[in-house]
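Lab manual, section 2.4: Encoding a predicted structure.

Procedure: take the sequence of the chain (141 residues), apply the prediction step described in section 2.3, and record the output as structure tokens. A sample record is shown.
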Amino acid sequence: MQYFKIRPNVAGGIGENTVLDSTVHPPIVTRLHYVVEGWFGDVIVATFPCFLVTEETQRALQKMGFSGASFAEAEVTTSEECEEDQPGLQLPPFVWLKVNGKAGRDDFGIATPFRLVISKRVLDLLESLGIPFAVVEPYEQ
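Recorded output:
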């Protein structure tokens, strides 16, 4: 199977309600609050060290079956700048994609230095749902 490094669009950042342990690297996040600064349609977004996907993407992944990740609830809000720059923006519901797989083996994995690696079948799914601002490159183990 082919694998790819993907850099999802950074549509925002860590919010004040996030709970994390920054004494380790990467930080361990136990509660995620994602503040959207601007969103342009990508079904997977990021902020170090977390990834989020739309609920539609979650359902599609669950339907196809996948390895290397689980889902958790996330608080998602918009910043004042986002509300000014994109008035009336209707965000789809997002969920936290918690990656725990091995890069180049599972459908989702993390490679050094903290790069998300996905399988070809996950890439095909994400592309079909929309990742216009993600950067994708082949992954060589």
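Check your result against the sample. The longest helix spans residues 55-64.
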